[in-house]
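Same chain as my last thread, 91 residues:
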Amino acid sequence: MSRRTEASSRHLTAVPALDATGLLNLQMLVRRLNEHSVKVILAGVQPQPMRVFAGAGWRNRHGRLRIFRSFERGIELARRTRTPGVEGRHS
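reply #2:
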């Protein structure tokens, strides 16, 4: 029996700043996706949003959340996360 792996990648290269409202909305999205066993990959995170994540206690959580400064590394993980023969959610 194969295990279905799904991931949802969010590319944040065009997000130079993140405020409390943006963090709250992103937190709700991550929680909702994780409840449906979907790993969230944040790719291309710029310095200010990375500081906001750190200040809020956001850390990489195995199987649930990965945060990358590098867009390329984040997207590579999203590609590898898919189970062969099963399409994951990538956007």
